[in-house]
Model the fold of this input.
Amino acid sequence: MKIEPTDFNKRSERIARGEGFSQTALRKLIGYLGAIVVILIGWHIAAILIDSPALPTPIATIPMLSTYASQLAPDFIVSLYRVVVAMILGTVLAVPLGLSIGRSPRLDALFAPLLYILYPIPKIVLLPVLLVLLGLADAPKIALIALTIFFQVLVTVRDAAKAVPDAAITSVRSLGASRMDVYFDVVVPASLPELFTALRISSGTAVAILFFAEAIAGSTGLGYFIVDSWAMINYPRMFAGIIAMALLGVLLYELFDVLERHLTRWRRV
Done:
């Protein structure tokens, strides 16, 4: 079988991309390990200096992760489910609207004042209203997070779509592209980096809101686990829950990072 030079080049490129990905993953892993070591050292020093039961040392806390694993695991899954579903709902609703507003001066003139008024309002204050309307189950927690993510993604995508150069649109239209072609081939790709930046930032906000919602109104989830441990004055158990919630945030952040690398490969060409 004859191997054409182009085939060889393609194989070489695939191998190079694989090696590049492995090196990137290795560097990221080393970076995480180094950061964990620094955090543990700082935590240990702070615990010794403060000398309070409210701040146990890492040596006293980390074993609690295995001790309470049977309780932490289901709470972790519940919290993960709530925040993932909420972020999907908020993003799916916000992206089309943000793209439309960003590319339509008329829609922007109509919706911009509403955004300027509603966006700065802290959505956490709506939790009591949602609890009355939706009950104490998953619905109010998911709705509250989704509402927060909706506005953060909407504003970011609207600004990204608005910033697409008119010259890029004109050049594509001159080649016979339809309105839908312009959206999917120009506006959407140009907005993706800003979208994933918003999602990474929003993931921390989503986890914070999740904690408040589960702590105030709930009997499951990591937020409830942490507050329940605090009420029992079991601080090592409480910090085990805090570590689990931090891990939840890191997983979301890494998920969006992987999705961005996959969906915006053109940025590395």
Summary: Confidence is low (pLDDT under 50) at residues 1-12. Residues 54 and 235 are 6 Å apart (CA to CA). The first helix runs from residue 5 to 50.
